[in-house]
Amino acid sequence: MSKWIEEVKGLSKSVKAKLFFTLSATVLVVITFLIIMNNFALEKFYLYSKQNTLKDVYHTLNDYYNGKDHELDLETELEKVAVRNNFDILIKDDDNINIYSSSKNFYSVIGGTTEEIDKFSSGKVLEKENKFVIKQQRDFKNGLTYVLLSGQLDNGYYLYIRVPVTSIQDSVKISNNFLLLIAGFTILLAAVMVSVISKKFTEPISELNQIAKRMANLDFSHKYHNTGADDEINDLGKSINVMSTKLEKTIRQLRNSNIELERDIEEKSKIDEMRKSFISDVSHELKTPIALIQGYSEGLVENVNSDEESRKFYAEVILDETNKMDRLVKQLLELMKLEYGKRQFNNTSFDLLELEREVVRKSQVMLEEKQVQVEWENEESISVFADDFYIEQVFSNYLTNAIKNVQEINGQKYIRISNQINLEKQKVTVNVVNTGESISEEDMARIWNRFYKVDKSRNRNQGGTGIGLAFVKAIMTNYGNDFGVMNEEEGVRFYFDLDLEK
To answer: What is the pLDDT of residue 90?
Structure first.
């Protein structure tokens, strides 16, 4: 029931329904007005018209009998008037002798005596002059209402003319019924016409409404189909198409501008974050070398040790700390660029095994100091696609970390390098394993952070800068490749993935 009510409400809001109801209401108002005019004005107008006709006939007959128009065939004219206007006409002379009668019935009704005539002539006076009077009377014998002119001509003749009024009353009823019939037919015709005509107007309006709703939801894909008609609706459709195109273009430009603005804001945010991080890291890490430089410089200035060897030692310490500061600042800048996507990789195809052997060769001095040998699980050439400069840094950091932390476990001390190919993923996993103590779960999550060191007791000469693994994380994150660390039975395994040559 509620659904039906909603449908009726929706229909009542449509243009077609409004047109139909408006047209129907207009027709009913017009018909009602005509019926009211029929009931209250038509009869009065009819009586007024007949009164004038009666007076005209009276004056015409009076002029004739006064000798003004002898050529007029009065009897013929009276018959024409009687037939044309449905008049009953009776003329008597001053001796009450019938001179002319258009209806025997009229003559028999009036009778022959003056008293009978006066009795018959009673009724409502409509108009009265010196020689005639016009009355409205009702004949109770036949139930009809008449308008009667009774008067005397200048020559002494008596003139009686009557016209029935009942016919106009019947005409009013017939006219009203006919008007009601016309109203029903007009409303039915209006329904058909509204259905046909409104379709021509409502269809493009509905289409424009749908387009406007789509535009409100920022969907500009639908356009108005130009009908070629020279009317306001087609012009509106053209204007909406133009507006849709311009809005689409403007919104696209705004979106692009907004994306660029968001990118600029994000870029600025990254730069600010990078600047703050860089300042924080530099200020934290340079405290020790600056303090050393300051202390040894003051010693030289104050000539604490006057011998040449001591001054040389002071100068070497200052130079060494300066070099460490320079290297640290450069590494931090490079790390910042990697972490914030400011570094472009020069990816090429190269032999992974050849790169690994070169790094091992450069680290030979450290390997000899630790008295450890590098073991290779496989020595097949593997072609990979990446930036060999940064991959060398990743592998070098893993190898250096393994050399620093390698220990003898259960009579074994080694560093093992292996490359495992996964053809399904088109990846190769590089593994660097060293025997030694395991890393705790807490430290595993933190060793990739800048300046974090598992062994807090290591001195500055052996501990490094603490950003090597942070370099690994930044480089692998840029490539989107996997990396990590795992504890094994006798040591620790660090690994990272590379893309095979395409």
So the answer is: 85
